[in-house]
Amino acid sequence: MNHQSPLADKRILVVEDEYFIARDLERALRAADAIVIGPVATLEQGLDLAESQPLDAAVLDVNLAGERAFEIADRLSARDVPWTFLTGYDQWALPAPYRSASIVAKPFQADRIIRAIGALMPDKGCA
């Protein structure tokens, strides 16, 4: 049975300022055969990649060293790139426009983040 990961060959942007979380996330995505863009740790770097790179999806930490990633989310949405927040914040703590967003809670489990990202992308069928 040839079961390919739903993230195989997908370009996933990772914006996360905590080194160990970023590395774990990168490892989990690579294990699912995704192409990891980043990880980057700042709002400025995230915005640059969100605007300049071809992307299939993104994982965004809400709090980047005191700056919020909402501007990155907005830029991605403007480009029709789906994204999920990876955060320790509860949904109700987010500004109203983002409360219905896909959210994966920290600490995260690899299979949970892979499923969340896979759910964001339209099914392209079997390759």
Describe this structure in words.
The protein has 127 residues and is of the alpha/beta class. 34% of the residues lie in helices and 22% in strands. The chain has four helices and seven strands. It has a five-stranded parallel sheet, with helices on both faces. The protein has a two-stranded antiparallel sheet with strand order 4-5. A hairpin with a 2-residue loop joins strand 4 and strand 5. Helix 1 packs across helix 4 and helix 2 packs parallel to helix 3. The longest helix is centred in the N-terminal third of the chain and has 13 residues. It is globular, with a radius of gyration of 14 Å. 31% of the residues are buried. The mean pLDDT is 90.
Summarize the structure.
By secondary structure, the chain is of the alpha/beta class. It has helices spanning 19-31, 43-52, 70-78, 110-120, and strands spanning 11-15, 35-40, 57-61, 63-64, 67-68, 83-87, 103-105. The chain has four helices and seven strands.
Give me the count of strands. Answer: 7
Helix amount, in percent? 25-40%
The residue-averaged pLDDT reads: 90
Largest sheet: 5 strands, parallel
Q: Order of strands across the biggest sheet?
A: 2-1-3-6-7
Number of helices: 4
Beta strand %: 15-25%
- String of helices and strands: EHEHEEEHEEH
The Rg value, from CA coordinates, equals 14 Å
> CA-to-CA gap between the ends?
13 Å
Which structural class best describes the helix and strand composition?
alpha/beta
CA-based shape: globular
In the predicted model, the low-confidence regions spanning at least 5 consecutive residues are none
